[in-house]
Amino acid sequence: MICDDDNGLLEMMEMVMDELGYEVVTEVNSIKVLKTLERERPDLLLLDIWMPVLTGDQILKTIRLNPVFSEIPVIMYSASTDGAEIAKNCGADDFIAKPFDMEDLELKIKEKIAVK
């Protein structure tokens, strides 16, 4: 599952993940992430840190408090210089800086799904 408020980036990431053989669910609205998680039960969540209304770190803190979702691996991403620290502090399993290399992202996804 990918959650990002940027439709262009969301579509590009979805296309790349589809080509790599992953079934992808996207969510552009940060308020609907938990409902989408509940409905879809993804193996992994790619989560943008900076989104309107609810930020990625707020979403992840809520996810980690819910036993149903707490074990879902989460890779956060951001162009922010303090993104890695934010991701670590809110319980992300990994972080990748934007703009990111798709091969690096693919490796991180494979690693997190394999661990699960």
Q: Could you please describe the fold and organization of this structure?
A:
This protein has 116 residues and is of the alpha/beta class. Helices cover 46% and strands 15% of the residues. Strands 2-1-3-4-5 form a five-stranded parallel sheet, sandwiched between helices. α1 (7-19) links the parallel β1 (2-3) and β2 (26-27). The longest helix has 14 residues, at 102-115.
Strand and helix layout:
Blueprint: E1 2-3, H1 7-19, E2 26-27, H2 33-40, E3 45-48, H3 56-65, E4 74-78, H4 83-90, E5 94-97, H5 102-115
Parallel strand pairs: 1-2, 1-3, 3-4, 4-5
Q: Helical region count?
A: 5
Kindly report the average pLDDT value: 93
Strand proportion, as a percent range, falls in: 5-15%
Q: Please state how the strands of the largest beta sheet are arranged side by side.
A: 2-1-3-4-5
SSE-based structural type: alpha/beta
Helix content percent band:
40-55%
Principal-axes shape call: globular
Largest sheet: 5 strands, parallel
Provide a compact summary of the structure:
This protein has 116 residues and is α/β, with parallel strands linked by helices. The protein has five helices and five strands. The chain has a five-stranded parallel beta sheet, sandwiched between helices.
Which labels suit this protein?
single chain; alpha/beta; 5 strands; globular
